Hints:
By secondary structure, chain A is of the alpha+beta class. The first copy, chain A, has 4 helices and 6 strands.
Amino acid sequence: MNTFLTQWHRAVFERDRQVLNDLLADDVSFYSPFGWKPKEGKLMTATVLNTVIQVFEDFTYHRQLQQDSDYILEFSAKVKGLHVKGVDLIHLNEAGKIDQFEVMIRPANGLAALGEEMGKRLGAMG
Amino acid sequence: MNTFLTQWHRAVFERDRQVLNDLLADDVSFYSPFGWKPKEGKLMTATVLNTVIQVFEDFTYHRQLQQDSDYILEFSAKVKGLHVKGVDLIHLNEAGKIDQFEVMIRPANGLAALGEEMGKRLGAMG
């Protein structure tokens, strides 16, 4: 497995915030499954990703496709007992850091449950 | 571009129903962005795909990644004036026919608009 995926899996599965932080570009844009406009910057993106990593249960990657600086990673998980599938669409900049991160989730009831839980947790930080 | 993608683009962009039909395995499973359980079979899958092709405006493919018999195709479109992004996750069987087709869409408001429009059109057929 290539270096990026090895590090990414370490960030996700070992919940290693330092590794996650090192993988993100300062100007990363995060495209969430909920809204159209991206969230901008490393702090915002790391906060969202660290939160979603805690919300997902039984998180597993399946097909993980790469082409040049683009990765599309298929996953499954559970959210409050509901099955979800999703993809991470990741683009790396020339320094090998993530500068675009986009997430899509199905089905609609799992997406809604995730939105509710994320709202609770991120709202509680503010 | 390889044969499958050439044919798939013809089915989508020329709205060629015969080509679409030829690409689908009889036992294809369709995983929609709305529900967890797949819709089964060629007729059901072709009906849903032909309908969504008519609903999407300004449909464009972006990153199109392949690994062996798996394709993940990123797209953008508009639904009733709303921007959407999505992915098609496609698996081909040994005969080169689509036996799994999964779709994910973001953001939530575009997904809801698509669901409403699909319900109207597929409901009207019944």
